[in-house]
Automatic annotation (TrEMBL), chains A, B, C, D:
The gene is xylA. Belongs to the xylose isomerase family. Its EC number is 5.3.1.5. It catalyses: alpha-D-xylose = alpha-D-xylulofuranose. Binds 2 magnesium ions per subunit. This is Xylose isomerase. It is found in: Cytoplasm. One of its GO terms (cellular component) is cytoplasm.
Length: 440, 440, 440, 440
């Protein structure tokens, strides 16, 4: 029985000719084969709980704009509200045909007065979700713990100066890993929104690094203990809410993992908006993670290029999304990861149907990006150009330089003897950029 | 005999009461004792060759503004020009009383037609500088190779797709390390201005990382081979000239060093302007390097906070410089490193005396910053506050959590059993910030 | 009778030797004479209501951290809460010795269910504040209407597509002007946080400009109608909460005023943080407003230079504040305007005493800046240098060019005839920057 | 007879099926009718002289990379070089089939030792170009004077502290207006790259504003004097090379024009990269200019979103270009203006064919954007949505509010009497954004 929140809703069809006010996919066709695989299995879409069902539409200068029946002003029993919210969420997931969803513990269960109450609430809801998963076939892409909203975490969770906060956070992560494992989650994510500092003047960087390193090692140990088969993912972000966050960007996270012996145990969940805030392109972060062997999953959204905060908008730029999937496909595509919409409506988009139009639009954009990227790879114009560009390194002497058989002195002697004086060759950037435009 | 470039110049005195048009230090007094050490030995000032003696005053929209007798339009013999430039440079170093200087090979020797000619020119000038060092007592803080200006490096030096460019770069670094060693340099620096990419579309990130890792390992091997006692330093920068540079910031460089087994062999030379361009504060980069054990030296300057390119201005903000030296002193001060002025005149500051006023001003700013930072540390208000803030971690159970004796399950059980529910405590940021203002 | 919120509090004294944990001014001495005027009369400090007494410590990723007895979770009667809040506020204003305060209507009165209820609530509180003003001698620097927090304003107030929102906003401004007038406010401020757009795709720029122009004209007409003697001030901001705000920066506001015939009726209230977000320095915005004849007042705070949102931190950089007051003093100082602390604690600064330490610190910083700026002006090194730099324009022919007596042809003929070929002269920027450092 | 620079070149054809290494337009078909007009007449493409034929490939960290036969190192006679450069330029313009070109005086003529020599050189080349125009049918979109590269302009042209520089600049502009008029130019452009300041400490803002206002008035007076029928255009830019430029963005230029009585005489030439550097989107600047009645022309390029300087890359983002032409078409399209490629190769794109591929790609991108924008307008989904959104203003009472017939008191009385309490309505931003994606 439907909640009626979205009116008379059913699964949104694929219909390339649909009109502008019709809910239909014009590009996302789950069963279409792309590079030998179904689009659904490539993209592995997930819809997140927090932006669509928890966020009230507030911003730093204004309060709630959304009017949802499960919000506290309209539903006084928190557990009933949580269940109603779950009902509506699954109606939306089902209508969209997304195979996965994602959540923080705080999104799905009422906040309790204690750790014990939080845990009990979580378990109740996990059972509720389990039944829904069984009924719908929907799966959990990843779960995570919200270690940033409650005031106890204001100075950090794992990196808090107070060891009791570290303990509370660790205990909470255990319960969230248990919940994720029970629900068959494909991954477990950690985003350290409060792991960082507001001012160096009151902060001990080195100690906090040790705390964070130990915390993550415990997570990995517990994963193995319980036999959780999914990947552990860290989500980098440079700042906001914290002035400086330790998991700044992919390269910084790599250094952290390597320092704590975790580079083979943990991967990254890369968000477009976080890449932009860190001064990188989305494709840069993906390509870097792939090159370093730690690419895991993506949070798909977009950041306004003129705003300096996390705008979490729905993706709508086909060329940019194409460049992202191009790097993902070059890296072999997703394993346990997927495309999670960490995207929220603008706070003026009040209507339930805005939730649907925005996700449909975003899924279509991703489908277009995936197909364009796949054709680029299949035609191979750029990959061949890149291979040719580095082909000089295939010869013996360059190989010897790279493998460690030559010293600075050896090379200097050869340059001197052979009067090596290389002429530069065109990098053909504009040509390459226009090649991409053949596909988008 | 003086070149007369600066008119009738002699060593600039310390005179706190000097008038606004008098060349005098009002704060920098080399022999003053700060925390038990002479100011000169704390600050280890160096003056760079390139900005003051090589740069013609051009910018992307305009050409030469400076009129120097050693420039090509006024001096047709390149080697004579190089020697005249060195004469003037040493006159300035001496007048300023800076104990050190720094250079790229391309700053001091004429560009040749071949590697062999470059090497010969370099050796000629190194002998010339050696004699000047002997006469004046000036020392070399570090030398480096310019692997970015010549068109052969347009697509990278160590990371070039063409192995011949890698070879040319490697050979050149060997000659610069030899020169630095001969001149008794305290460090050798590498700045990879072209090590990065303009577009991912024509770039193989993983291969270029291997090239860069091998290159740096060769440098370290050669250092040990020749017994060079100084430190090898990498200078991070996020971009400019390249769209993305691999040595993005301190944390990225750390990851790179760790990946290539070099974290105990190489340190960083941190520039204020590069920190700003990377979205960090100067003190952040210093503190991060110290926490990671790779702090080496600083390039002192300042970047305009409203400009998105490398403005390389002289430092003139006492509070900012104080925060930087506070982190440096907390980390134990410089070992082989020092304070190098990687700062240039605005192109409208045409007069020779502008060179002197700018350096005198910058040295005074640093002296004020050092003294303020030292007093902060000696009074210890902030360090004590920080210790108290983390003091909970001194107890046994927190120690056990941090040392690896506790698992997530252990901790969850304890949180549950003891109903741990920590209350946040004020971080007192505004108080701490105002404490700093007691000293500046 | 004290509320006890701040403990046993009394007026904070001027005591330059006070220790780090003592609440005392080390630099702000209201009666000290600077350039012939009392410091208090120069600085005209105001403390704002919203950050210190209304904001709960939330940010986009976390909720309330502050625990205040007048917050809804501790005080269930909204009008009693409003009065308790006012009691505490006046205790703080009095302790600080700030002569002024500032508010939005929504800060001081409970939100009603209708315009009529809002108005009634406002009037009740205005009477309450009037009594407090009479008792303490405190004055209102300016009042303003909050036309951005309530969801009705989500798409703009004056620029809303719905004329009913325009009407509601206009009616509200009338009540706030009445309140400000009754309380003897020195100015009335408008900040158009929602006057702008989220996307051009749903926006009619030209129509919204007409709406905003008409709205402001009504405000000015009403000011004259009621005989309000204060200035009408617009506060520029480039964005946040809105993606693009129409009152982008001082130069944009000037164009808007001129377009609507208001350039002699309305001035600007300039905030440091808004200047930074617009890509300007604080002193740039002040100097621009002064040059255009529309300088009114300042919102004193500081924005984190590494964050892209409005951080509203307390000022603590003496050199920056000095440059700001230097421009203010050059422009003749404040008339009706003043120095309003639009600054908030970091959300980790939980304690009541943090409110006091932060304001004391900020007031001391301003006092230092004012004194340094005054000495700079009195000694006149820079003003003389600037005069000399432009002195060529004092001759007859340049005067004729500037006054409109010469055409392009006249000038071209003279340049040709006299072979005019000017040599550039040094701008001495570094010297000038170091002159400032003599004073800070 | 061909110079051979581009090899065996002829007019590049329209061929949608052309392969990746073939020079052909896949989208730009000059004669195709779009909204009742030929594409060529809509887009009015122009190719600029400076980036492609003058710039040597240097950047702040490296020198010349391009090897062109007319550069000083290969051609010792400056006038011969200028003519050879013009021959090659016209070969490229013709091959591309662009109807227009653009230049600065300094791009086309050798720099002389005096104003008289500059003028003579310019006249010689103008005659040379005139003959080429006659032969090819190519036209001049606009001419302009380079008042920023020569060292005499380092402290400004019109805003220089030295009136002789003002005079030299004015005389130069006269000659460039004469040249533009003689060549039948459709517009005359002024870009004030040095009109601004490096530091307020040595600057008199108010005086410089007067100088700039007088200068522009002289330009307008001279236009009328000689009967030049084209538009006078100012090109806004926020900074670079200057720290702060007076013609910051469209809104700032509007205020300047209005202040000096020029808002009906001068329009703007808007560059994508300058918009981005000012913190705006390209479409924002166009829409703002249209709303203010000062839209003139565009400099088409793109700025790297991760770089803080003027990258002047070729456009290659269809959605962005579509949004730009959507605003242009809504404003009625170009009158005298056009689409000028102010875009340069990356300095690694060494080959002559890179010049062709880059322009062909850019022209195709613009053609795609124009066609998408035209279909958007013709289908009218968004324009209808916007009309409906503001339709409440069509009623009598809102009209009365807007027209000035209502006062704040009138409106407040009505809100009170009718208990007006508007409910917000969805802005449907995501729906609108996805509508755009139907077309690109």
């Amino acid at each position: 029985m439907s909640t009626g929140f979205f009116g008379d809703i059913s699964k949104i069809p694929f219909d390339p000719e649909a009109g502008p006010e019709t809910l239909a996919f014009r590009h996302y066709n789950p069963d279409e084969i792309v590079m030998g695989k179904r689009m659904e299995d490539h993209l592995r879409f997930a819809v997140c709980w927090w932006h669509s069902f928890v966020w009230p539409g507030g911003d730093p200068f204004g309060g709630q704009t959304f009017d949802r029946p499960w919000f506290a002003d309209r539903c006084s029993d928190p557990m009933e509200a949580a269940k109603l919210k779950a009902d509506v969420a699954f109606e939306m997931f089902t209508a969209l045909g997304a195979p996965f969803y994602t959540f923080h513990d705080a999104d799905i269960r009422p906040e309790g007065e204690s750790f014990a109450e939080n845990t009990k609430n979580l378990q109740t809801i996990v059972d509720f979700l389990q039944a829904k998963q069984d009924k719908t076939g929907l799966k959990l892409l990843w779960g995570t713990a919200n270690l940033f909203s409650h005031r106890r975490y204001m100075s950090g969770a794992a990196t808090n100066p107070d060891p009791d906060v570290f303990a509370f956070a660790a205990a909470t992560v255990k319960t969230c890993m248990d919940a994720t494992h029970k629900l068959g989650g494909a991954n477990y994510v950690l985003w350290g929104g409060r792991e960082g500092y507001e001012t160096l003047l009151n902060t001990d960087l080195k100690r906090e690094d040790q705390q964070l390193g130990r915390f993550l090692n415990m997570v990995v140990e517990y994963k193995h203990k319980i036999g959780f088969p999914g990947a552990i993912l860290i989500e980098p972000k440079p700042q906001e809410p914290t002035k400086h966050q330790y998991d700044h960007d992919v390269a910084t996270v790599y250094g952290f993992l390597k320092r704590h012996g975790l580079e083979n145990e943990v991967k990254v969940n890369i968000e477009q908006g976080h890449a932009i805030l860190a001064g990188h392109s989305f494709e840069h972060e993906i390509a870097t993670a792939a090159a370093l062997g730690i690419f895991g999953s993506v949070d798909m959204n977009r950041n306004d290029y003129q705003s300096g905060w996390d705008t979490d908008q729905f993706p709508n730029d086909v060329p940019e999304v194409t460049r992202a999937y191009y790097e993902i496909l070059k890296a072999g595509g997703f394993e346990s990861g997927g495309t999670n919409f960490d995207a929220k409506l603008r706070r003026q988009s009040l209507d339930p149907h805005d939730l649907l139009f925005s996700h449909v639009g975003g899924m279509d954009i991703c489908a277009r990006g995936l197909k364009a990227a796949a054709t680029m790879l299949e035609e191979g114009l750029l990959t061949e150009f890149v291979s040719r560009r580095y082909s000089g390194w295939e010869h013996d002497e360059p190989k010897a330089m790279l493998s460690g058989e030559r010293t600075l002195e050896d090379i200097a002697a050869r340059v001197d003897a052979e009067d090596i004086n290389p002429e530069p060759r065109s990098g053909r950037q504009e040509w390459a950029e226009n090649i991409v435009n053949r596909y988008v």
